[in-house]
């Protein structure tokens, strides 16, 4: 399943009733990486009233892990709305941090939800997003006489041959877009009369 990720880090600033919301978006690949950025912003803005955050690792529709923090704001008014924006905008492998400087006017629960949502949404609007298409790795064992045919099918499905071993038979390690893997396997089976041995492992 394809999804989008941040091409690079982005930052933006919004204001709501004299409160400043400094927003930072970062591409991240793990919880550890996300937490390191969060710690960085806490140290960078020690005088801020709140440093709220949300991250999602992997595909936003089937995340490997996700988490958020309101950092002292009323429960559910900051981190969760921030995560909701990342999910709705399909920004996978991403961290959003919003640093708030209180401006003296209370926003109320609804106002906070809108303010934190808008802060992250505005940052996403300014971000460059790139599409990620997950790959699947296959190992195909075939007779020497069928190698040329299988190589042709690999090219046809925009795959890449990672490694080739020549022993009693030819063993090809192949990476190709997961979205086309099923059709690729069916064609290999058809073109080799069912003689190919195919092992699948998602990456």
How would you portray this structure in words?
The chain is of the alpha+beta class and 203 residues long. It folds into 2 domains: 3-131, Impact, N-terminal domain (Ribosomal Protein S5, domain 2, 2-Layer Sandwich); 134-202, Alpha-Beta Plaits (2-Layer Sandwich), CATH 3.30.70.240. The chain is 32% helix and 39% strand. It contains 5 helices and 12 strands. The chain has a 5-stranded antiparallel sheet, with helices on both faces. A 4-stranded antiparallel sheet has the order 10-11-9-12, with helices on one face. Strand 10 and strand 11 (170-177) form a beta hairpin. The radius of gyration is 23 Å and the shape is elongated. The two termini are 12 Å apart.
Write the layout of secondary structure elements.
Blueprint: E1 3-6, E2 10-16, E3 19-27, H1 31-44, E4 50-58, E5 63-69, H2 79-88, E6 91-92, E7 94-101, H3 108-126, E8 129-132, E9 135-142, H4 147-156, E10 160-166, E11 170-177, H5 181-191, E12 197-202
Parallel strand pairs: 1-6
Antiparallel strand pairs: 1-8, 2-3, 3-7, 4-5, 4-7, 9-11, 9-12, 10-11
Summarize the structure.
With 203 residues, the chain is of the alpha+beta class.
Radius of gyration: 23 Å
Specify the oligomeric state. single chain
Which class of the largest domain in CATH terms? Alpha Beta
**Unreliable segments (pLDDT under 50, ≥5 consecutive)?**
none
CATH architecture identity of the largest domain: 2-Layer Sandwich
- Biggest β-sheet, characterized? 5 strands, antiparallel
- The CATH H-level superfamily of the largest domain is Impact, N-terminal domain
């Amino acid at each position: 399943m394809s999804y989008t990720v941040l091409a690079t880090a982005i930052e933006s600033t919004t204001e709501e009733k004299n409160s400043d919301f400094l927003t930072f978006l970062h591409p991240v690949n793990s919880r550890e990486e996300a937490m390191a950025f969060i710690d960085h912003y806490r140290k960078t803005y020690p005088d801020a009233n709140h440093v709220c955050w949300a991250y999602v690792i992997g595909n936003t529709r089937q995340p490997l892990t996700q988490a958020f923090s309101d950092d002292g704001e009323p429960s559910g008014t900051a981190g969760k709305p921030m995560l909701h924006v990342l999910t709705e905008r399909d920004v996978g492998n991403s961290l959003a941090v919003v640093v708030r400087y209180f401006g003296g006017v209370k926003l109320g629960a609804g106002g906070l939800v809108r303010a934190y949502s808008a802060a992250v949404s505005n940052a996403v609007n300014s971000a460059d997003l790139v599409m990620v298409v997950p790959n699947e790795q296959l190992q195909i064992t075939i007779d020497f006489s069928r190698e040329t045919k299988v190589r042709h099918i690999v090219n046809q499905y925009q795959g890449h041959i990672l490694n080739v071993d020549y022993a009693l038979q030819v063993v090809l390690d192949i990476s190709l877009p997961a979205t086309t893997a099923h059709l690729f396997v069916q064609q290999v089976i058809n073109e080799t009369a069912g003689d190919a041995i195919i092992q699948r492992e998602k990456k």
